[in-house]
Amino acid sequence: MSTKSSITLIGLLLFALIFEQCTGQKDLQKGNYEHAISRSIAKLRKSPENEKAANTLKEAYNLHVKLKMEEVARLKISTELFRWESIIGTYNNLNYICDQINRCPACLKIIPDPNRYSKDLEEARYNAANVRYELGLEQMKLNSITSSQSAYRHFLSAKNFVNQFKDVDQQLKMAKDGATLKVIMEHIPMHSRSLTLSNEFFENKIHEFLFNLNYEFVRFYTPEEAQTYNIKAHQYIQCRFDDFVVGQVSLHEKEQEMLRDSVILKTETLPTKEVKNTYGTVKATVHVFTKALSSSGLIDLRILDANTGSPLINNKLPGTYVWETRWGWYNGDERALSKDQLGYIKLKEAYPPTPQQLFIEFTKPIYSQITGTLQNFYSKYRL
Fold it and tell me: Alpha-carbon torsion 174, 176, 177, 179, what sign?
């Protein structure tokens, strides 16, 4: 056999292999009926007269339906708690295949009446909803936050299976109320003998964060809201400044002798028209002033159990902010100065921020730590 003939034969074999895989024959042989059905439907849409794809579809469909219905029969007589949910998945799978065949004219010639399990699916959804509903009622009897959360999840599943199942909406409302942790964030006290400062911005930012946290099973209140709605708290959030200092001043002067070599000191034109440069060293004495205002504080973050008063969290969270200004002057030749020094000598001492602004700045890193801690602690109350 010539080399050319060998290459042609190999090509034909590869094509046959690819063609067989496209029609789903290989999946059928492996017992992967669902993939075999999908491949054969795809092939028949492109090539309606494909005999291999037609045979694969017919055989794979019959075997797949038989297998799935045996699975349903086994589940129905089993004691598996959520067996109806598995049955729903099976019926959905078979109905999806039915839809795919109905949208393929060539496939309908092979399987003219694919099975649709609408009534069976409706019955399975009702039974699945009833199981979840009864489990929700059992959890509600335990009368705790965690059991109410479990009940809410069961009732929600029941509603997803059957939207208007019994009084599921009313049960969801009662379960949500019992499942919700009620937390009051107390006001942050301020004590400053020398400065009049407000922590309103800082406190409001924390309240805004808690409001937008939007975890299903936790609700945050201000003390005023709790009083208005007569809320009985499960927990309290407390933030207290252990200590803080605002605008602690430090002033530093740096004197530096600067030399720069190979600087053009003089340029002259010779009678020959040639330009001659005279090089030398220039000197300058630079005075750079750095004024810094340091502000820092330490906050005590606590989450307290409302019944026992015991701390569930007790963290010390620090924050620091340093404001700086630089300016300077010099004696000597300006050409000896660096680029940075040239910038400093053109500046004047800047006016510092107000104590209130400094307070806001050093509380920013504290805010990030507080919100991170609260987000992590209450994340377990998500749905």
Answer: positive
| Cβ atoms of 26 and 38 closer than 8 Å | no
Cα(86)–Cα(71) distance, integer angstroms? 9
For 278, how many CA atoms within 13 A lie in the half-sphere containing its CB?
Answer: 7
> With contact defined as beta carbons under 8 Å apart, do 272 and 204 qualify?
no
Q: What is the pLDDT of residue 23?
A: 56
How is the beta sheet containing 311-332 ordered, strand by strand? Answer: 218-221, 181-185, 235-269, 275-305, 311-332
Q: Where are the alpha helices (DSSP H) in the chain?
A: 3-23, 25-30, 33-46, 51-76, 83-102, 105-110, 118-141, 145-161, 168-179, 200-213, 223-228, 339-344, 355-378
What's CA 323's distance to the chain center, in Å?
34
**92-110 tens-digit pLDDT:** 999 999 999 999 999 999 9
3-state DSSP assignment of residue 253: strand
Do the bridges between strand 218-221 and strand 235-269 make them parallel or antiparallel, or are there none, so unpaired? Answer: unpaired
First CA to last CA distance, the chain: 70
Identify the CA nearest to 353 among candidates 277, 252, 281, 246.
246
350: left (phi over 0), alpha (psi -120 to 50) or beta: beta
Over 70: is that where the pLDDT of 7 sits? no
Alpha-carbon distances, residue 382 vs 115, 175, 179, 357, 379 (angstroms): 41, 14, 11, 36, 6
Alpha-carbon span 156 to 364, nearest angstrom:
40
- Alpha carbon distance 37, 101 (integer Å): 9
CB contact burial 220-239 (16+ within 10 A = b; e otherwise)? bbbeeebeeeeeebbbbbbb
**107-137 burial, b for 16+ CB within 10 Å, e for fewer?**
beebbeebbebeebbeebbebbbbbbbebbe
Closest of 128, 102, 132, 131 to residue 116, by C-alpha: 102
User: What's the gap between Cα 47 and its chain centre?
Assistant: 46
List the structure tokens of 216: 């299903």
Q: Where are the alpha helices (DSSP H) in 185-317?
A: 200-213, 223-228
Q: Which two tokens stand for residue 165?
A: 């199942």
Does the pLDDT of residue 20 top 80, yes or no?
A: no
Is residue 292 within 8 A of residue 322, CB to CB? The reply is yes
